[in-house]
Design brief:
Strands 1, 2, 3, 6, 13 and 14 form a six-stranded mixed sheet that branches. This protein has 19 helices and 23 strands. By secondary structure, the protein is of the alpha/beta class. A hairpin with a 5-residue loop joins β17 and β18.
Length: about 525
C-alpha cells in the first residue's frame, strides 16, 4: 500500500481514478491510484421495487443514491488521508447490465426503468433468437424493446434513443450517448470483427413484420459503441454537480466508456484473455469465459457477449445467487438479538459459512431453491424460494448452511455443465469475485467443487465491479497505446497474490449428487410456482 503522504498527494493532485458501480442492492464507489491500489471507498444501499409487476428503480433513487455514495467516499478519503476529494484523473460508471431505458427527443424517460430481473419478454426473446440465429435472452434490451412493440405500448412511436443504466448515468455526467462494448453486447449482438453492432443481425431485426411500421431504425436509437480506452468524453460541470451537490468535486475528469457489471468483473479478476474466466457472485451470478473458438450452435443456456475490449465471451447468467442466502442469515441475526446478543454481520457470515463446510458433502439430503425471481437457466418462470427435505435427511445447521451455499451456485452449475462438458469450451483459469467470497475459502471451495475446476481469489475479490470500473477509468486517463490485457498484466496485477482452491474429490462427488437431486426436484419448484401464482 502506498504511504499516507504519497496517497494524499496523489488525491490532492487529481491523479486518482474513480469507479462507480450501480449494483442490484448497493451503489459502490472505489478510488484508486495509478497502480490500482485502493485509496478509498464509499457505498449506498438501495433496493429495486416491484411496481405494476415490473422490477424497477426510480431515477430519483439513482441520483440520490449516487450523491450519497460519493459523499460516503469523500468522508472515507478525508478520514484516511486528511485531504479532500476535489479532482480525479479518470472516472467511469458501470451498472447492472441489460434492461430497458427509453427516451424521447427531449430526453424524457418514456416508461419506468425495466431491469434485467423482469422475465416477461418470453415471446419477444423467442422471436429474436429465431430471426437472428443467436440466443437472445429475456433480459436483453432488444427483447424488452420488441416486447413493447408486440404489446402495442404507446411510447414506442416516440422513442428517440435507448440505453442501459450505466449508459444513462454516463450521458448525464458527460453529455455523450455512448456505451462500452461489453455493456452494448447485452443490448444487441456485437460483431467481434468490427467491435460494433452486428450489421446482418440489425438487418434481420429490421425485416421483422412487427417493426415494419416503426418510425425509427434500431441502429439509429442504440448508443454508439466504444471499446475500453476510447474517447468517451469528460465530466461536465453539470455532471459533477449531480455526483457532488456540495460543489467540491470539479469537472474535467476523463470518462471511460460506461460498462456493465459483467465487464468490470472480468477486469477486476484479470480474465480478459482467451481461456480465462471469472464468476461474479452477488444478487445474481454470472460466469464469463473468454472464447478462443466459436460455439457449435445456438444454446439457450449461453449468452454471447464481449470483454470491455470487444473479445467474444460466453456468459452463463443466473438471476438468483445470494439473495435468499442473505435472507436466511438475517433470520439468524434476529435470533441473536432475541437472546440479547449483538453480532457483527461480517462475523456472523464467517461463522455460518464456515459451519457449512462441516456439513455432509451432499448437504445431507437438504435441497434449496433460492429463486427470489424467475430462473431462465432452469426453466422456472417466476420467483418461488423453496426449501425441502425428506424424512431421512440429516437436518443439521452445517447441512442447512451447506445446501444454501450450494444453491447459490445451483443454476450456474447447471449452465456451466453445458458450456464445459457439452460445448467443451477451454478454460485454464477461473477467478471468483463478489461479496460471497469475502469469507476466505468457503464459497471458493464450494464453487471449485461445483465446477470441478480450480478457483482463484485475490485480496480484491470483495471489492468487485467498482474496482474494475476504476481500473478502466485509470486506463482511459492514461491514454496508452497498450491493449487492455497488457495494461492489466503489466500495471495492475504485477504483484497480485492469488489463493487457489483445488476441487476436493469428495466435494466434487457430493456436489454432483446434490445437483442431480436439485435438477430432478425442479419439477416441484415449477409446480409450486404454478400453484401459488
Amino acid at each position: 500500500m502506498a504511504t499516507s503522504e504519497t496517497s494524499a498527494e496523489v488525491i490532492a493532485a487529481g491523479r486518482a481514478s474513480l469507479g462507480i458501480e450501480l449494483g442490484s442492492t448497493r451503489i459502490k464507489a472505489t478510488l484508486i491510484d495509478e497502480a490500482g491500489r485502493l485509496l478509498g471507498s464509499g457505498s449506498h444501499t438501495w433496493e429495486n421495487e416491484l411496481v405494476d409487476d415490473n422490477w424497477t428503480y426510480s431515477m430519483d433513487a439513482v441520483w440520490s443514491g449516487l450523491a450519497a455514495c460519493v459523499a460516503d467516499l469523500a468522508a472515507d478519503v478525508r478520514a484516511r488521508w486528511s485531504t479532500e476529494l476535489t479532482r480525479v484523473a479518470g472516472l467511469g460508471v458501470s451498472a447492472m447490465m441489460h434492461g430497458y431505458l427509453a427516451f424521447d427527443s427531449d430526453g424524457e424517460l418514456l416508461a419506468p426503468f425495466r431491469t434485467w430481473r423482469n422475465t416477461y419478454t418470453t415471446e419477444a426473446a423467442a422471436q429474436l433468437t429465431e430471426a437472428l440465429g443467436q440466443n437472445i435472452p429475456l433480459r436483453w434490451s432488444v427483447s424488452h424493446l420488441l416486447h413493447a412493440v408486440l404489446n402495442g405500448e404507446d411510447h414506442v412511436s416516440r422513442i428517440d434513443h435507448l440505453t442501459t443504466l450505466a449508459g444513462y448515468v454516463h450521458w448525464k455526467l458527460s453529455g455523450r450517448r455512448v456505451l462500452g462494448v461489453g455493456d452494448a453486447s447485452g443490448m444487441f449482438p456485437i460483431d467481434a470483427s468490427t467491435g460494433d453492432y452486428d450489421r446482418a443481425k440489425l438487418d434481420a431485426f429490421a425485416a421483422l413484420d412487427a417493426v415494419a411500421e416503426a418510425p425509427w431504425s434500431l441502429d439509429g436509437i442504440l448508443p454508439q459503441v466504444l471499446s475500453a480506452g476510447q474517447d468517451a468524453g469528460e465530466l461536465t460541470a453539470e455532471g459533477a454537480a449531480l455526483l457532488d451537490p456540495t460543489g467540491a468535486l470539479q469537472p474535467g475528469a476523463v470518462m471511460a466508456p460506461p460498462e456493465g457489471d459483467a465487464g468490470t468483473g472480468m477486469v477486476a479478476t484479470n480474465s480478459v484473455r482467451p481461456r480465462t474466466g471469472n464468476v461474479s457472485a452477488g444478487t445474481s451470478a454470472f460466469a464469463m469465459v473468454v472464447l478462443e473458438n466459436d460455439l457449435q450452435g445456438v444454446r439457450e443456456e449461453i449468452d454471447l457477449v464481449t470483454t470491455p475490449a470487444g473479445d467474444p465471451v460466453a456468459m452463463i447468467h443466473t438471476n438468483n445467487c445470494t439473495g435468499d442466502l442473505d435472507g436466511w442469515l438475517q433470520m439468524f441475526t434476529e435470533f441473536a438479538r432475541l437472546i440479547g446478543t449483538e453480532i457483527d454481520e461480517t462475523e456472523l457470515y464467517r461463522l455460518l459459512y464456515t459451519e457449512g463446510l462441516k456439513g455432509d458433502a451432499d448437504a445431507g439430503g437438504l435441497l434449496s431453491y433460492n429463486y427470489l425471481s424467475g430462473e431462465h437457466q432452469t426453466g422456472v418462470a417466476s420467483g418461488r424460494p423453496l426449501f425441502v427435505r425428506s424424512q431421512e435427511a440429516r437436518f443439521t445447521l452445517a447441512n442447512l448452511m451447506r445446501t444454501h451455499l450450494y444453491a447459490a451456485f445451483g443454476a450456474l452449475a447447471s449452465g456451466m455443465q453445458v458450456l464445459l462438458q457439452e460445448e467443451k469450451v477451454g478454460l485454464d483459469q477461473l477467478f471468483g469475485h463478489g461479496g460471497i467470497f469475502r469469507t476466505a475459502g468457503v464459497a471458493q471451495q464450494v464453487l471449485a467443487d461445483a465446477l470441478d475446476t480450480p478457483v482463484s481469489v485475490s485480496h480484491s475479490a470483495g471489492e468487485g465491479g467498482s474496482w474494475g470500473m476504476a481500473i478502466l477509468a485509470a486506463f482511459s486517463a492514461r491514454r496508452t497505446e497498450a491493449s487492455l490485457a497488457d495494461y492489466l498484466a503489466d500495471v495492475i496485477f504485477t504483484d497480485t497474490e492469488l489463493v487457489t482452491a483445488q476441487p476436493d474429490p469428495a466435494g466434487v462427488r457430493g456436489y454432483a449428487d446434490w445437483l442431480e437431486h436439485y435438477q430432478r426436484g425442479l419439477a416441484v419448484e415449477r409446480l409450486a410456482g404454478e400453484t401459488l401464482r
